[in-house]
Design a protein that fits this description.
211 residues, Spore Coat Polysaccharide Biosynthesis Protein SpsA, Chain A, six-stranded mixed β-sheet, 9 helices, 6 strands
Length: 211
């Protein structure tokens, strides 16, 4: 099963790349690469005749997780916090694995963390997380996080912690300054994400990833 957002464009080999990663072993959770597009129109007439990156606005930001992997000198499958970085704007997992954990928790409301919580349960059930850099989505320009979105994220984090009162789950609070539009984060997102991973390792976090 592959999940996407509605405001994205994928390349013709997108599904094949997800399938290739799943062929490498059972019970995988695969996260694909996300590129952010600038504001601007798409040439829908050109796209009707096949994928053409020239018909899209230019890419203005790459996938920030790749910088995190460079900082950690590792990839998603090596991380004890890999579940947090599975974003369902570009992810896939076996249908039977999804059904075994009960699917998405539909009691999450608003913006944020419902995908991380699903990935956390999948990893607890024995899945491993993997990054697919060739399974690319181009994401239409997103507006910055608003105060309302931040409040929703905080509410969803509290729900996440109630469901899974583990130290590494609560540790996601470390991202709050980077998300809160009214605060200044003490470092870049990838610095904070690297600290999250290092701290989780020191806590001995192992929700199933390295069994």
């Amino acid at each position: 099963m592959v999940t996407l957002d509605a405001d994205q464009v994928v390349e013709p080999h997108f599904l094949a790349e997800h399938a290739r990663l799943h062929a490498g072993g059972p019970g995988r959770v695969v996260a694909g690469r996300r590129l952010q597009l600038a504001d601007g129109p798409m040439d829908e007439v050109r796209l009707e005749h096949g994928f053409d990156p020239q018909a899209l606005p230019p890419v203005v930001r790459g996938d920030e997780r790749e910088q995190l992997f460079r900082l950690l000198d590792s990839s998603l499958e090596d991380m004890v916090t890999g579940w947090h970085h599975v974003w369902t704007c570009n992810a896939s997992f076996p249908r039977d694995s999804l059904e075994a954990v009960g699917g998405f928790d539909e009691t999450f409301t608003g913006w944020g963390l419902e995908d991380a919580e699903l990935a956390y349960r999948l990893v607890q059930g024995g899945a491993t997380t993997h990054f697919a850099p060739s399974a690319v989505v181009r994401h239409e320009h997103r507006t910055p996080v608003t105060a309302d979105m931040y409040r929703e994220w905080c509410r969803n984090l509290a729900h996440f912690v109630r469901r899974h009162p583990a130290p590494e789950v609560r540790l996601q609070e470390i991202f709050a300054p980077a998300i809160d539009p009214d605060r200044s984060a003490p470092g870049t997102w990838d610095d904070i994400a690297a600290e999250f991973e290092h701290t989780a390792r020191r806590l001995g976090a192992d929700p199933g990833q390295h069994r």
